[in-house]
């Protein structure tokens, strides 16, 4: 199936879902007061585009995500590299990572709010914490998966271990690290909005809370819709960048899903 | 050029090399054959300084191998893993030259020259994975050539290509050797190949490997895929090497020693290599 046809199927699926929801609402099977009509949500979403308050809240959420993500990359990628290249480092840090990783980030919210002066800082701290894991794990596996023969080839020409990391390990782990960034970006958005919903401050989550207390379910859903669209856009942009930058990786891995 | 004496290596309890003795003169093309799993690659990695053998000595150009020797290049069997997929063919070929310094332009020129030598100047801007297996191995050979090593080690270099490509690559190696005069040690499990390409064929026993045969190949030059292979001497040598590889005439310690230590100077060119090899006794480990 061609890409265009695949995309068309996807559009048809979404349109079908919206039509069904609209029909269920109009026929009264679903009370439009509880869940607004699809058309109401869509027009509400379109109206949000000119809503300055909403746009500035989106800006706050996105900048928290960006700052958090950058900090996470700065921490997790070097750490993952150390763990992926030096077995002793991996063995000593692994249990700690395995323990910390499954802790739901929201469970750390009270601690973050206590430790950091502003809510914004606490939010960023939680984004860093949560998005570190996919980055760390992907970097670690990317480096551990570097073909030993590729490293040996470079060694056979007399290159030292620093050059092997620089010329072989990093480029060959780069696609994995980039995938880590993409996953971390989705996670960052989820954590940001969750923290805003729970702890307030500024951001999309706060906008949603306010709309909800004003009993504007259509606005709540319209804002939620945009959050989903933002997540989707960020993910697909990064995925596109990945496949463009690392054409060699896909060509080599064949059908490997990215 | 290369002197190996009493080289042993064990992986834990498993002994791969049981005392290998081998001398290779400057400009020689020596093929090392042996049954699979006999420690051929271990031998090559010890020469290349990629592995520290548990015993014995390896001298390259008179210097003991402690780290990777300066003037040495290795061509591995698995070209698809040994070439870097994120670099173009030209960048792959010029990469080892970075260690020697020099500016980018001179590296690029050297890479182009090497690619011309292997008949692939048109592939310079492509990526390795866009090429066929045989072409990729040519690129790997070009990378070794660009480095202009005094000693080139080839580990089963044509083990992963089809028969026709294999013949082309064998001829390429012969041609490269003629034009550059470099010393080449080629490891293979293919008996025909070892006789066709080599000036000398060194036969290793099953592990723990020792040298059980060292035969000088004197076939008319230049070698030709058809004419050489039907030459009576070729047929004869091939049978002899085949017997040695299968251990049918593998000798005791005596055979291993004479075969190994006399090296190139030995009159080991005749099929009746050594009377001691007549008995089908298993190879006794060297005392």
UniProtKB/TrEMBL annotation, chain A:
Membrane-related topology note: Multi-pass membrane protein
Predominant cellular place of this UniProt entry's protein: membrane
Location relative to the cell: Cell membrane
Domain ABC transmembrane type-1: 58-238
UniProt keyword terms in alphabetical order: Cell membrane, Membrane, Transmembrane, Transmembrane helix, Transport
Transmembrane parts of this sequence: 58-79, 99-118, 176-199, 219-238
A Pfam family reported for this protein in Swiss-Prot or TrEMBL: BPD_transp_1
Stated family: Belongs to the binding-protein-dependent transport system permease family.
Name the record gives this protein: Nitrate ABC transporter permease
From TrEMBL, chain B:
Record keywords, A-Z: ATP-binding, Nucleotide-binding, Transport
InterPro entries: AAA+_ATPase, ABC_transporter-like_ATP-bd, ABC_transporter-like_CS, ABC_transporter_ATP-bind, P-loop_NTPase
Domain ABC transporter, chain residue ranges per copy: 2-231
Region annotation (Disordered) ranges: 247-287
Pfam families: ABC_tran
Gene3D superfamilies: P-loop containing nucleotide triphosphate hydrolases (3.40.50.300)
Biased composition (Low complexity): 251-263
Cross-referenced PROSITE patterns: ABC_TRANSPORTER_1 (PS00211), ABC_TRANSPORTER_2 (PS50893)
Keyword Transport in annotation: yes
Protein name: ABC transporter
